[in-house]
Write a structure and sequence with these properties.
The structure holds 2 protein chains of 2 kinds. By secondary structure, chain A is α+β, with helices and mostly antiparallel strands. Chain A has helices at residues 6-14, 53-60, 102-108, 111-117, and strands spanning 18-23, 29-34, 37-38, 43-48, 63-68, 80-90, 128-141, 151-154. Chain A is 19% helix and 34% strand. The chains are: A alpha+beta, B alpha+beta. Chains A and B meet through strand 1, strand 2, strand 4, helix 2 and strand 5 of A and strand 1, strand 2, strand 5, strand 6 and helix 3 of B.
């Protein structure tokens, strides 16, 4: 079952980078560029332990959003979207747990396999935790233009 | 994803940005991502064009249709150019976020900036940014450890960990001189396979002990922590800093290597004992452990290059030689050890260039710390010329065989290093390729010297009357 509008899912599938926004302890939004990986139901991102402050923020407040805004990162598409959702950090095995995402990661970034083979060069970069986002709401700008109100959809209420 | 994940906020790991600098950077992006937290508690982001007035610390944009930008709370404007290329690599990774308050009048929103943060790999290269972030990783694992009540640490497969911890590939610095010493002895008619193999193994344990002890004592003295631009050739193994191996484990490993080296040394003394071997062994141990360990700390006193030259030149080469000759000494191994010593010292010398800022912070007075760029580059050229000149002089004087001149074939590589130092002196990552070539200068020169001695040995077997020494 689709949980997001079709064009939003297409954007997610195409995006080589998106902007994850978390809320810090003071209630401020903090935005991080990351590769979004979508399995048809949930959105996954990974974070190295080196850059793990975002994980601390998510543990403190699981409400996040993921935006896809950069036309160049989506193969020239001009539409844009922001997906709001609830995130959880999956960190049972920072060494290898995230590797279950490799098949969908490799589709977007084939070089990840090459980089992983060289993990001895930068071992902490490959100690990673997963961020799993359950989408709740999507805002979609068909023309990518903020002068037009976005189409807002509740996730999970989208017809298959 | 190399780099796309490299985003943090409010840390000193990137240069501090004031709001004007942040807005200036933001103005370089084709659009900004306006973000705020909506009444339901979820962040909302919308991409829009922004007119920025950096000197005034402000920006103006058209209110996004259908959405309400809140007043009285922090909103942010983000620009991002972290963009993996389809297939491989990234280009010009950078991003910036400016936080501030928004005030809407009609359909116009005025933004007053309050603080900014960002990362630009042109200012802080990705590898340096990663090194500066080790503390965050440690904090993360420490929190997991507390949460689970059991130690949670980063990991690496045993093979990679062993390679990284011991810096095994650098063993060529030991194998080359020891085997050369054995080869000279063999040419002179003294060769015993068992003790030759034991000598190589024992000397290798000394270097492994040195490599690991170096990390232990550099960690104690803060040198490795202070170095945020390590490369594959410099800055130590960093397994302690990364939390892959504990300080105690490293100390134990260094001790184990030295004990194994000592046991083999004692066996060799028993089998081929001589005063010369005993002296070489004792001095070698002192030079090895004293390289970074107090109270000697040769490398901290600007004597590291000399210690390495002596240790991996005359001591290793003469050590390999006297085991075979039962202590008899001649000029040939000593003369050959000098160019080898200079070339191995130059490995350390060049590897110290990217470390010099961190070394200076902890009082490690290496030559690149003490001298100017011009002097350091001049020093490289002078030492390399001296190495080849001694080799030629040794051949002309009849101390070294003519085929030893094969090592001159590495001169183009040395010139490549010399030329590469100037443009990469302040770029640790650009210097990596130069350091790689510099390691090859020593290795290839050693292998060519060995090839030269192989020619001498073969010719000595098939045509004993033909001399390959000038004047003999």
């Amino acid at each position: 079952m689709s949980v997001l509008p079709a064009p939003v899912e297409q954007l997610l599938d195409a995006a080589l980078v998106g902007e994850l926004t978390v809320v810090d302890a003071a209630g401020h939004p903090v935005t991080y560029p990351l590769i979004p990986l979508f399995d048809g139901e949930r959105i996954y991102l990974t974070s190295s332990t080196l850059f793990s402050r975002k994980l601390e923020h998510i543990k403190g407040n699981p409400k996040v959003s993921l935006s896809i805004t950069d036309p160049i990162a989506v193969g020239g598409r001009t539409d844009r979207a922001t997906i709001q959702g609830d995130a959880r950090v999956i960190e049972e095995d920072p060494h290898g747990g995230w590797e279950r995402l490799l098949p969908i990661w490799e589709k977007k970034e084939p070089s990840i396999v090459y980089f992983l083979k060289a993990r001895v060069a930068l071992p902490l970069f490959f100690e990673r935790s997963l961020i799993e986002i359950t989408p709740r709401r999507a805002l979609y700008w068909a023309a990518g233009d903020a002068t037009t109100a976005p189409v807002v959809s509740d996730a999970g209420k989208v017809a298959a | 994803m190399m780099g796309a994940a490299a985003a943090e906020t409010t840390t000193p790991r990137t240069p501090a940005l004031d709001v004007r600098q942040g807005l200036d950077k933001l103005a370089s992006y084709p659009f900004a991502i306006l973000t705020w937290v909506d009444p339901s508690g979820y962040p909302v982001s919308v991409a829009l064009p922004v007119a920025i007035d950096a000197p005034a610390g402000s920006a103006v944009f058209t209110a996004p249709a259908g959405l309400t930008v809140p007043a009285g709370v922090d909103v942010s404007l983000t620009g991002s150019h972290i963009r993996p290329q389809p297939g491989y690599g990234y280009d010009e990774r950078r991003h910036v976020t400016v936080w501030g308050r928004a005030t809407q009048t009609g359909d116009r929103v005025a933004f007053a900036a309050a603080r900014a943060w960002g990362w630009d790999e042109a200012e802080v290269p990705f590898f340096e940014y990663s090194e500066r972030s080790i503390g965050q990783s440690k904090k993360y694992f420490d929190a997991l450890t507390v949460e689970r009540g059991t130690p949670v640490k980063p990991k690496l497969s045993f093979g990679w960990l062993a390679l990284r911890t011991t810096r095994l590939p650098f063993l060529t610095a030991t194998i080359v001189p020891v085997v050369l010493g054995i080869a000279i002895a063999a040419r002179q008619g003294s060769f015993d396979l068992v003790t030759a193999v034991l000598t190589v193994i024992g000397a290798a344990f000394v270097q492994l002990g040195l490599n690991v002890a170096n990390d232990v004592f550099d960690s104690v003295q803060g040198a490795d922590e202070a170095n945020v631009t390590p490369t594959q050739f410099s800055g130590g193994s960093r397994v302690i800093q990364y939390g892959l191996v504990s300080f105690r484990q490293m100390a134990g490993l260094a001790t184990t290597f030295y004990v194994l080296a000592a046991v083999i040394g004692l066996v060799l003394l028993g089998l081929r004992g001589s005063t010369a071997l005993l002296v070489i062994g004792v001095v070698g141990f002192i030079v090895s452990i004293g390289y970074t360990a107090p109270p000697l700390k040769f490398v901290y006193r600007g004597l590291g290059e000399i210690a390495v030259a002596i240790g991996f030149g005359p001591l290793m080469l003469l050590g390999g030689y006297v085991v075979q000759t039962r202590g008899a000494l001649t000029w040939e191994p000593f003369v050959l050890s000098l160019p080898v010593a200079l070339l191995v010292a130059l490995i350390l010398y060049v590897n110290e260039i990217p470390d010099r800022r961190g070394d200076a912070r902890v009082g490690k007075r290496t030559l690149p710390v003490r001298f100017s760029k011009a002097a350091v580059i001049g020093g490289y050229r002078g030492a390399a010329i001296a190495a080849y000149a001694i080799l030629v002089a040794g051949v002309v004087a009849g101390q070294l065989p003519i085929p030893a001149l094969l090592a001159l074939l590495t001169i183009p590589l040395a010139r490549q290093v010399s030329r590469g130092l100037e443009p990469n002196y302040d770029n640790p990552y650009g210097l990596m390729a130069v350091m790689g070539v510099n390691v090859k200068v020593h290795l290839y020169a050693g292998l060519l010297l060995l090839a030269g001695y192989a020619v001498v040995l073969i010719l000595g077997a098939v045509a004993p009357s033909v001399s390959l020494f000038v004047g003999r």
